[in-house]
Amino acid sequence: MEAGESGSFEFPVTYEITGLPSGEYYMEVYGDIDVTDTSHGPNLAKDPAASQIGPLTVVQGTPLKTDVALVDPSAPGDTVEEVESPADITEDDTELSDTHSEVLTPGDVTVTPKQGFGAIYGTVAWDGNADGKLIVLGFSTSPPSGPPTLMKSFPKPLFPQFYLIDNVTPGTHYLLAYLDKNSSDGMTNNPELDPASVGFRGVTVGAGDTQLEDFWLTVPQQ
User: Helix, strand or coil for residue 87?
Assistant: First the structure.
């Protein structure tokens, strides 16, 4: 399958994107359920999708294998965003990606960053209505610009929701957590509608570092 190809597929599907110049890329993968919808991007309420994948560092002429898992938006639990190789999936990773029948806390898991990366983990607390998609994302600049440098999403969060991002590029990232109440507007944070943490929090991690960051969502500003 080539990028942008449509039709009926039997999963797992093998894809190939060729001719890319060297550089960093972000990838968006989703199953478009309604092919009559001509708008670009997934309908987060209906389309199975992976959260934004990247940055992926491409060296021209050198193959880069990236496996992707799509998540049904109606299914509860965590989303699996990026798996570089099936061999990278560990028993701990599988447990974190399953539907949780109980609330996980940072003390319940051992956090190990992927090789060459750092890890950011913690819980997101909210005592209001949990309807919506919980998103934790970060940017390399403040105020944010361009695509996020990291992201984790939960279609049906269980508060306090544990999160783990174990492929964080070393450096400083500015993080925000929010509960997306309106999936029809993409993953945009609407400050008048979405409960969110206060401001963008600067977090610096190095390769092999782990950083605990807890968030508390607050009532939207009216």
Answer: helix
Sign of the C-alpha dihedral, residues 179, 184, 187, 193? negative
Residue 92, SS3? Answer: helix
Using DSSP, state whether 71 is helix, strand or coil. strand
Question: Which residues of the chain have a pLDDT value below 50?
Answer: 2, 76-102
pLDDT digits (tens, 9 = 90+) for 96-136: 333 333 456 666 778 889 999 999 999 999 999 999 999 99
Is the CATH number 2.60.40.1120 carried by domain 23-216?
yes
Element (H, E) at 207: none
Other CB atoms within 10 A of residue 177 CB: 27
E strand intervals along 41-182: 53-58, 118-125, 133-139, 150-154, 161-168, 171-180
Classify strands 150-154 and 53-58 as parallel, antiparallel or unpaired. unpaired
Q: What is the domain partition of the chain in residue ranges?
A: 23-216
pLDDT the model gives residue 204: 96
Residue 21: predicted pLDDT: 75
φ, ψ (nearest 5 deg) of residue 93 = -60, -45
Yes or no: say if 87 and 64 are a contact pair by the CB < 8 Å rule.
no
Say what the pLDDT of residue 52 is: 55
Burial class of 69 by CB neighbour count within 10 A (0 to 12, 13 to 18, 19+): middle
Q: What predicted TM-score, i.e. pTM, was given to this entire model?
A: 0.56
